[in-house]
Amino acid sequence: MNRDYLPKEKAIYQAVIELFEEGADAGNLTVSEITARAGIGKGTAYEYFTGKEEMIAKAFFYNGEMFCCQLYEGIRKEKNLYDKIEFVLLTMEQQVSRTNCIFRLIHMLSDNSSLSGWIRELLQQKKMFGEMLAEEFIRKILNDELKGRSMPSEDQMAYLVFNIYSKIFCYGMFLKDERYIKADNRETMRRLVNLGICREIEEIFSLK
Known about the structure:
This protein is mainly alpha-helical. The chain is built from ten helices and no strands. It has helices spanning 7-21, 31-38, 42-45, 52-75, 81-94, 96-108, 114-128, 133-146, 154-174, 183-205. Mean pLDDT is 82; it is low at 128-132.
């Protein structure tokens, strides 16, 4: 699911994510701060990247890729659909800072900065080469559920992918709300989201 990364390239990505998890702002973050955290020379970084914007944009995609890979491994151990969705939602809870990095990536798409330009360009490249990991991950869950059943139409599959993605996205937003800091509140919301996803899938799969 993921490609191999050169050690110094990977060090830059991990440094960016760590700095963002500590509250760094994209506009004020410098190449020097990134390379110092990564433990490599500033000049060396420019052998891999054109500048700060490329470093940050690719780091966010790297974070999303690693997160999806972790989820892939986790759902393989779960036996049924509910438990697979539960694993995804619980992992989002347990790794809120990592989840927030993904939401920050989406938020940055809304401005007109050079960083958002890099993000949009990378999105186009991934669409071109079929590397949309969130979509691929959701389709993996659906294909596992399809074993022994009739295949729904592509339109139905596309609807399910979009529907599941939007519900998971909304759950990530719920985790940022102070009302859901308490474990009991999160458990209730997690159960409702999970049941909603499972019900939607079963309804589509039962269509003739």
